[in-house]
Amino acid sequence: MKSSDLTHFALREAPFSKEIGDDDLWLPSSKTDLVDELTDTIEARGSALLVGDPGVGKTCVMRALRQRLPLDRFRLTYCHNATLGRRDFYRQLCVALGIKASATAAAVFHGVTTHVEELGRERIHPVFVIDEAHLLHPDVLDHLHILMNYDWDSRALLSLVLVGLSEIEDRLAMRRNRSLYTRLHCRAVVDAHSADDTREYLQYRLKAAGAERELFAIDALPELHERARGSLREIDRIATSALREAARRKRKLVTVDDIVAVDGVRARE
Fold first, then answer.
1. Cα distance between residue 112 and residue 105, in whole Å
2. Which of these, 4, 115, 206, 208, is most buried using a 10 Å CB contact count?
3. With b meaning 16 or more CB within 10 Å and e meaning fewer, what string describes 217-227?
4. Contact partners, residue 236, CB within 8 Å, separation at least 6
């Protein structure tokens, strides 16, 4: 948003920017139980699968999980490039862990597993979070269960969290991936946000940006929710555009007309 738009609504900053710290992260009451379940799983040294449609808040849930886990007991490593082959995937993991990446696939894998064992001796439990897991290369997906096998599969030294679209479940259900699937103790779905969530989210983000009054008309909220279909990214996009439109029209309150103007004649079927 332009500075003139912010001034028009008496805001300190753009309310729907993605640049928000973990301490200021919004977590709806409807997702609290989900974060609790994931936290319990990791504290029990288990692994998890988290699926959901684009924009429903999977990353927000993972950031909330990161906040829950004590730094002196857990070490989270985030991998977002899931399209790499097996060797490059493990080389990426080495870089994220801060260890030297060897030349061969076997040596790279050995480096990662040795590091995991060293953390175990220090009583630190590593957690590997793999985002966009539905895009994992077949060679990597075939091999991940081996990464979780320590001391004849008798020690839980590593937790794995796969995050992605629901397609990953279809791949995991295949016979060749059953060894990995059976190791994912928690299998959770992030649902689209409810109308109450949308209202709560708007109020939270606007207040954090300095709003001291309502900026969206009451009847504009259901329209915004319907068009966004419960996606936070879509809420951010439409709400930002609607604020700009209202400012352009010299209005202090965003109306249904503003939302329609920036997102089409009617809500998508």
1. 11
2. 206
3. beebbebbbeb
4. 16, 18
H or E element that contains 227: helix 220-228
- Give the H or E element holding residue 43: helix 32-43
pTM of the predicted structure, to 2 decimals: 0.88
Residues of the chain with CATH 1.10.8.60: 3-14+193-263
Distances in Å between the Cα of 266 and the Cα atoms of 176, 226, 238, 258, 262 are 46, 10, 13, 12, 11
Q: What is the pLDDT along the chain (269 residues), one digit of tens a residue?
A: 899 999 999 999 999 998 888 878 888 877 899 999 999 999 999 999 999 999 898 988 999 999 999 999 999 999 988 999 998 999 889 988 888 887 788 888 899 999 999 999 999 999 999 999 999 999 999 999 999 988 888 888 999 999 999 999 999 999 999 999 999 999 999 998 999 999 999 999 999 999 999 999 999 999 999 999 989 999 999 999 999 999 999 999 999 999 999 997 544 43
Question: Which letter does DSSP use for residue 61 in this model?
Answer: H
Q: How many CA atoms, within 13 angstroms, populate the side-chain half-sphere of residue 167?
A: 7
Correct CATH for 29-189 of 3.40.50.300, 3.40.1400.10, 3.40.640.10, 3.40.190.10: 3.40.50.300
Which CATH number is 3-14+193-263 given? 1.10.8.60
Q: Where in the chain is the domain with CATH 3.40.50.300?
A: 29-189
